[in-house]
Design goal:
Layout lengths: L3 E8 L1 E5 L4 E3 L4 E2 L3 E5 L6 E9 L6 E4 L2 E2 L7 H18 L22 E8 L9 H16 L9 H8 L14 E5 L10 E6 L7 E7 L9 H11 L2 H22 L3 H20 L10 H19 L6 E5 L5 E6 H14 L46 E6 L5 E3 L17
The structure holds adenosine-5'-triphosphate and the ligand C[C@@](O)(CCOP(=O)(O)OP(=O)(O)O)CC(=O)O.
Organism: Ephemerocybe angulata
Enzyme class: lyase
GO molecular function: ATP binding; diphosphomevalonate decarboxylase activity
């Protein structure tokens, strides 16, 4: 009997214009458009295998080897149901004699009527403010799209993004590589609230990112509940939605198209600040940044001041999601200097984090030997922190969209059970 199984991986994305607020919590329709950079899956990714089988008795999902309950009416159920519906609508209803591999078994069920087993694995901490829900739901939708043959040119990533969006808003942007906008849309049914590609990865491959992991534990206020509270209580959010974001979306799109890093950096930092300002304007206030986050901001601000003084314009852009971890965007030519600077203020545990060693062209036991403050930098802007204040550094760059993986990469065994559990 045929095996109906597919594996896909999907990237994390980190927004430079932040999504914060829903106008419809069930359909996950945002109060403003947003824009992100997709990060390289060679570093951070979710991998998901989906399998449809007439012998399965219920839809089941394992996340990192543990069953994740698919609650009725919940986000996982919505995504799985919508992918089955799309399969039925686009393929099965159109062609009763659909290709054999997509067709029937002894009980005359269509593929979309089989129950599915899904195994997913994140190669980085889940629910720690590293956008696991974004890569996770994008990988889920991508693996089901492969399984159900809902692939281009029949189905575009934008169409799939409509479904990933209902898993987690930011997930819709992980359906594309490169630079991606999530257009808020106006229709009440959400059919125009989708992701579009602003520029592919190849347009600006020099865009690198340094993730400073300040905390890898579960955060206090989830994005979902935090943004809802902001919508209900913040007056500043209304100004952000109406006046601030639309102009920034247009300006940063142009900056990306023109590969204008200085403007890209100014807008990115301004929007991170605006997002954290509306968090503070929430009742009761929400604090995602901590003292380490703020020290990183001070270091980046001084670095940019020096860069302007040198006539080079802004060279680093910090941005923070709903947690204390910093993502610093910078061009490839400057990333080494920035990593050296970060090491000078936030020393790493010797021998542990090797994710930044690539730029130093070799391996040493203690990455801290590379710490260096550029000449002319006012080193009083922040104090030097203890080892471990920044727990890890991940050097990555702009990356591609979801990938279809080979059968050998499957996370399910021949019985449709995660290989790690068998
Ligand atoms: N690989 C995955 N497959 C399916 N669902 C996932 C996957 N990874 C994460 N999720 C879902 O996303 C939730 C975590 O989302 P949450 O928003 O709390 O954290 P985060 O995405 O790391 O942070 P943020 O979105 O604020 O950056 C998990 O509890 C799980 O429900
Ligand atoms: C701060 C953010 O990262 C918020 C992300 O929120 P989520 O997409 O995690 O929220 P839900 O739609 O409720 O799942 C900004 C962004 O990614 O644009």
């Amino acid at each position: 009997m045929s095996v109906y199984q597919a594996t896909a991986s999907a990237p994390v994305n980190i927004a430079v214009i932040k999504y914060w607020g829903k106008r419809d919590t069930k359909l996950i329709l945002p109060t403003n458009s947003s824009l992100s950079v997709t990060l390289d899956q060679d570093h951070l990714r979710s991998t998901t295998t989906s399998r449809a089988d007439p012998a399965f008795t219920q839809d089941t999902l394992w996340l990192n080897g543990k069953i994740d309950e698919i609650k009725a009416g919940g986000r996982l159920e919505t995504c799985i149901r919508e992918m089955k519906r799309l399969r039925k609508e686009i393929i099965e209803d159109k062609d009763a004699s659909a290709p054999k591999a997509n067709q029937v078994d002894l009980r005359s069920l269509q593929l979309s009527e089989y129950k599915v087993h899904i195994a997913s694995y994140n190669n980085f901490p889940t629910a720690a403010g590293l956008a696991s829900s974004a890569s996770g739901f994008a990988a889920l939708v991508s693996s089901l799209a492969q399984l159900y043959s809902l692939v281009p040119p029949l189905v575009s990533p934008s169409t799939l993004s409509l479904i990933a969006r209902q898993g987690s808003g930011s997930a819709c942007r992980s359906l594309y590589g490169g630079f991606v906008a999530w257009e808020q849309g106006v229709r009440p049914d959400g059919s125009d609230s989708l992701a579009i590609e602003v520029a592919p990865q190849a347009h600006w491959p020099e865009m690198h990112a340094l993730i400073c992991v300040v905390s890898d534990t579960k955060k206090g206020t989830s994005s979902t509940s935090g943004m809802q509270r902001t919508v209900e209580t913040s007056t500043l959010l209304q100004h952000r939605i109406k006046e601030v974001v639309p102009a920034r979306m247009a300006a940063i799109t142009t900056a990306i198209q023109q590969r204008d890093f200085d403007t890209f950096a100014r807008i990115t930092m301004a929007d991170s600040n605006s997002f954290h300002a509306v968090c503070l304007d929430t009742e009761p206030p929400i604090f995602y940044l901590n003292d380490v986050s703020r020290a990183i901001i001070s270091v980046v601000v001084e670095y940019n001041r020096l860069s302007v003084e040198r006539g080079e314009g802004y060279k680093a852009a910090y941005t923070y999601d709903a947690g204390p971890n910093a993502v610093i965007y910078a061009l490839e030519k400057d990333i080494k200097e920035i990593i050296q600077l970060v090491l000078a203020y936030f020393p790493q545990t010797a021998g542990e984090f090797k994710d930044v060693l690539g730029v130093f062209g070799g391996s040493v036991q203690d990455v801290n030997v590379h710490a260096k403050i550029p000449e002319g930098f006012n080193d009083k802007v922040a104090s030097k922190w203890e080892v471990g204040s920044v727990k890890g550094l991940i050097h990555t760059k702009v990356g591609d969209g979801p990938r279809a993986l080979a059968p050998e990469e499957a996370l399910l065994n021949a019985d449709g059970i995660p290989k790690t559990l068998a």
